[in-house]
Amino acid sequence: MDSPVFAPATFDRRAWPTGGQLDYWHAPDGWPVRRYRLGSGRRGRMLILGGRGDMIEKYLEVIHHWAMRGWAVTSFDWRGQGGSGRLTDDPLCGHIDDFGRWISDLQDFSKDWHREGQGPSVMLGHSMGGHMLIRALAEDAVCPDAAVAVAPMLGLHTAPLPRWLAVAIADAMCAIGKGRERAWTQKEESERQRRLRQKRLTHDPDRYADEIWWRDHDRSIALGPPSWNWVRQALESTRALESGTGPERISVPMLLLATRVDQLVATPAIRRIAARLPDARLHVYGREAAHEILRELDPVRLDALARIDAFLDEVAC
């Protein structure tokens, strides 16, 4: 088995790694989904699923890390965000009519992905990508050999509003025809506003600045707040996953990483779902980690990578 190899400190997070391939995969309905591939595949294949509003560029550092360990790493931008187009006329609104559309995209994409190579197959999802991964596993839509969910969106952090009120507001906004409009504003004009958003995501100002740099470098990949219908779908999809029996049917070995102080997703929901999974391990960080665990300061980030690598060395051989 390969020994752990971490990306060098000099890795340029604002450039595409040498040797990768950026192209488009087309869904059965013809929708172009931006895709990136890097790595030899001697260790196996890994599919990385980003979160809401993410783009491939945010995860080049971890893509490079796993490519250096021998994985053939693939990632893509979800339909409607990153470089995969938009679903409304507002280029900064993160909209989807039905989360089921993303599950179908993931199922179709994974079928082609499985045919691309051999060896162990792993899927890793962050935040919304973690929700999509676990939901797809519960619905038998994907079949990797191992799965990793990092700060998965298994419940939304709606505070200070109670969840029932958040549901009522989202339903009402969609009922009056506001479903395709932004649910809130995302102000980043001042240094104070940027710091507030950064602290919800990561303690690392440099990695946060990388995201801003990529968005400014190519405005076509930039995305702002979600639509009201996205909020409604997220509340409904997380409720349905937890209230159903899907988690108990997931036989794939899974590692879940979370943080106790997450301000975007509900850590108690992660704990509840993890306890129901037949073959799962859960590690919860403390105040040292914000939502984007894989883009945190190195003490947390490297610890997370080491935990994931040790887990995959055990279960995905």
Number of helices: 9
Helix content: 25-40%
Mean pLDDT: 95
**Secondary-structure element pattern, one letter each:** EEEHEHEHEHHHHEHEH
Based on the coordinates given, report the CATH architecture. Answer: 3-Layer(aba) Sandwich
Structure description:
This protein has 317 residues and is of the alpha/beta class. It has a single domain (21-315), classed as Alpha/Beta hydrolase fold, catalytic domain (Rossmann fold), CATH 3.40.50. Helix content is 37%, strand content 15%. It contains nine helices and eight strands. The chain has helices spanning 60-68, 99-114, 128-138, 163-175, 191-201, 205-217, 228-243, 267-276, 298-315, and strands spanning 21-26, 32-38, 44-49, 71-76, 121-126, 146-150, 254-259, 280-285. Strands 1-2-4-3-5-6-7-8 form an eight-stranded mixed β-sheet, sandwiched between helices. Strand 7, helix 8 and strand 8 (280-285) form a beta-alpha-beta unit.
Q: What is the structure about, briefly put?
A:
With 317 residues, the chain is an alpha/beta fold.
Features:
8-stranded mixed beta sheet, 317 residues, Rossmann fold, alpha/beta, globular, disordered N terminus
